[in-house]
Amino acid sequence: AEGDLLFNVNSDIRFNPRAAEQPEWQNEDNEEFLPTGETSIDSYPNWLKFHIGINRYELYSRHNPAIEALLQDLVSQKITSVAMKSGGTQLKLIMTFQNYGQALFKPMKQTREQETPPDFFYFSDYERHNAEIAAFHLDRQILDFRRVPPVAGRLVNMTREIRDVTRDKKLWRTFFISPANNICFYGECSYYCSTEHALCGKPDQIEGSLAAFLPDLSLAKRKTWRNPWRRSYHKRKKAEWEVDPDYCEEVKQTPPYDSGTRILDIMDMTVFDFLMGNMDRHHYETFEKFGNETFIIHLDNGRGFGKYSHDELSILVPLNQCCRIRKSTYLRLQLLAKEEYKLSLLMKESLLKDKIAPILYQPHLEAMDRRLRIVLKAVSDCIEKDGYDNVVENDFNTDVNTVATER
After folding, report:
1. Catalytic positions, please?
2. Would you tell me how many other CB atoms lie within 10 Å of the CB of residue 37?
3. CA atoms within 13 A on the CB side of 98
4. Where are the domains of the chain?
5. FAM20 C-terminal domain: from which residue to which, for each copy (predicted)?
6. Which segments are annotated as binding site for Mn(2+)?
7. What is the pLDDT of residues 162-192, one digit of tens each?
């Protein structure tokens, strides 16, 4: 329905190519136009096609051709300007392309086979560029959620594509040449922004992930929600859910978890995070336009895939406490546990499409198979305790002519 679309293409969107430094859509009563003089949606840049495809149920449809084209843009479009992203604990760069699209660049901080040190707290862990790429593939190709904005890996020339095009003097001043004659920079941030944690090229090439921007907040406001199962982010304190086994009952009586699909969305996100080993889900976002009846956007997945030798069972607590899951999600997980649709093999195949493949170290892929079995055992235990119909929510539209899931 019309109200399910984020934008009404005819009245909401005005693409103004003159706004190159601060790209945004103009909401004026003038004609739509492009540098070519064309007005058809087909002639919009791929990032704009992605934006106008966003709806109440997903960031993009399963067969939207603009997504593959946008992934190609992320690795091939000329970078015209670079700036540091404000806020956050670690260095991230905003890159603007020749077609006025923008993406968030997370540079490589550790190699594929390095694990998070055992004495690191989750909140002081590195953000990994390859985790962002792998999370996109897991969300899109494997779990079929389509709630992560498109992400692609890219090799960037630090001199030509960052230092020479940035107008950010604070960033520019942190470039230096290391004793090994490599180009390095460290930027400004709360953690890991110093010469000891500099990002160095070989000699000036650096890997990173590029995540396509969502529509500007001035055009599509997003609501930020505190995750009910948020960790304490304290070295000694525990969160309420860690000490109260009946915590979910309290959550289910609180809006928006007392009606609609939000609790099921949280369960989807829980499974997604557990498979990646991501402990850092403190908040989540939704598009304000759709109210409470909409999906959760799976943003900031860089702290996933840190440990392949350890399964963090505390991530699965929401599922264990609430004992609820969508039927579509449950069936998909059961399918991925079968030898012919093995999760690790499908992930490996999907990730080979990325320009900086291999994305994940083999033990991480094997860990996902192990974690999948743990999720299925948790659901099975819930069904044994509460009964199938009380645990598995039928989200299929059973109309004779359609077989669709109600996301």
Report:
1. 280
2. 7
3. 7
4. 45-212, 222-229+242-393
5. 175-392
6. 127, 300
7. 999 999 999 999 999 999 999 999 999 888 8
